[in-house]
Amino acid sequence: MDLNSTSKFIAEIRKEKHLTQVQLAEILGVSEKTISKWECGKGFPDTGLILPLCEVLGISANELLSGRRLSTEEYKNTAEQNLMELKSKQEQSTKHLLTLEWVIGYISTISALLMIFVASFAVEILAWRIVLMIAAVTIIVVGIAFAVKIERDAGFYECNNCHYKYIPSYKSVVWSMHIGRTRYMKCPKCNKRTWQNKCINDD
After folding, report:
1. Which domains are delineated in the chain?
2. Per residue in 94-117, pLDDT tens?
3. Given CA atoms 166, 28, 62, 88 in this order, what sign does their dihedral have?
């Protein structure tokens, strides 16, 4: 997949459809700036927007990924390659998100512990101690909330019993016992509770 070819192709087909960037943005529910980034090669549509964009432009997802119109024979030859490239990009994005989860978790925990330490041993004024304690609790709660959201949204969990891969509810993630990213949860398919591992693809 050539991002430069795809960006030019989006702009070309949009103009063929007599749509402005603003009109296309309104149809897809995104900003004009987002469309501009796509057409300048500075970004690529999220997976959830690929099919809606293709529908509006009257092209196939394979043509979008290829950056050009395809004949029937070319369509068959490039379909698998484009899907593999797209999947690779999704997996890379998931890995970055999961790394970000660890960074947020460590930074928020260390920051909160430092504030608690300072409030306990380095500050004599009670009001400042209270402020620091409240700030520490706020940081750790917000940090954990962001980390849990990233962990829940990035990739999938795999049931060790039936090997079904799924995205659990926030409630399941928050209240489950866990060791790192391995969580003890109930599988929605076989309804058995097992230790379920985090995975980055749904193969």
Report:
1. 3-70 (1.10.260.40), 94-199 (no CATH)
2. 888 888 888 998 999 999 999 999
3. negative
